[in-house]
């Protein structure tokens, strides 16, 4: 039964399940580290994930949705050892590469989830428990007929808001102007959230110095697109 703490699962997913072989290094990282660092969303037992037990400590939980090939994620986790950092991604080689990067940086506060972030949030993360959610450069689905596939929709934002602790943040970034405007509109309409930078020009957040420049940002800059950050917090 649906209720305010159990939003309905969307019927249109926001990602394409890409194939692709792992490199030898990614496969080695998977074999060595996945049993300890990773879990598959579809194979989780019913109920909440016990992050305290999994990390072996109690600390604020930061969830990053769509870690890609892990370059940014590994650096962000390394820079914030006080966080229990959880990355959820659907692309197997990306998770393998993230484990390689984390190994190289000596990261110990990172855990990985393979699968759909909406399922994870809906079925395995209790309301009011996350210190933050990060969504950096999600698939923009630029064609108008594909806009319904964009992950930032009212139902998704309501789900994020329900899982954030009071004062917790939802931080987004995109280099597609129209998508940035959609993010701003949808999040501003969610009553449980407030724009931390509502008084800034157009409501955009200043680009944080701590967020590494991604390959998407570099390409956007070459192509003349401006990246926007948005930071909303739980009321």
UniProtKB/TrEMBL annotation:
The gene is trmB. Substrate binds at residues 143, 175, 214-217. PROSITE patterns: SAM_MT_TRMB. Catalyzes the formation of N(7)-methylguanine at position 46 (m7G46) in tRNA. Its EC number is 2.1.1.33. This is tRNA (guanine-N(7)-)-methyltransferase. Belongs to the class I-like SAM-binding methyltransferase superfamily. TrmB family. Pathway: tRNA modification; N(7)-methylguanine-tRNA biosynthesis. It comes from the Bacteria. S-adenosyl-L-methionine binds at residues 64, 89, 116, 139. It comes from Amycolatopsis rubida.
């Amino acid at each position: 039964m649906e209720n305010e703490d159990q939003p309905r699962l969307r019927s249109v997913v926001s990602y394409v399940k890409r194939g692709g072989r792992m490199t030898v290094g990614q496969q080695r990282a998977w074999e060595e580290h996945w049993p300890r660092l990773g879990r598959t969303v579809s194979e989780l037992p019913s109920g909440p994930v016990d992050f305290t037990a999994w990390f072996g400590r109690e600390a604020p939980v930061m969830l990053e949705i769509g870690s890609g090939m892990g370059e940014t994620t590994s650096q962000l986790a390394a820079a914030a050892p006080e966080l229990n950092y959880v990355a959820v991604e659907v692309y197997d080689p990306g998770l393998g590469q993230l484990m390689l990067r984390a190994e190289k940086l000596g990261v110990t506060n990172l855990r990985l989830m393979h699968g759909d972030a909406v399922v994870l949030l809906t079925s395995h993360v209790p309301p009011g428990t996350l210190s933050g959610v990060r969504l950096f450069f999600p698939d923009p689905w630029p064609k108008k007929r594909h806009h319904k596939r964009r992950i930032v929709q009212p139902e998704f934002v309501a789900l994020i808001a329900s899982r954030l602790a009071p004062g917790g943040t939802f931080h987004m970034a995109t280099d597609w102007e129209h998508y940035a405007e959609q993010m701003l509109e949808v999040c501003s309409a969610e009553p449980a959230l407030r724009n931390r930078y509502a008084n800034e020009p157009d409501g955009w957040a200043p680009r944080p110095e701590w967020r590494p420049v991604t390959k998407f940002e570099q390409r956007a800059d070459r192509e003349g697109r401006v990246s926007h950050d948005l930071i909303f917090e739980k009321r």
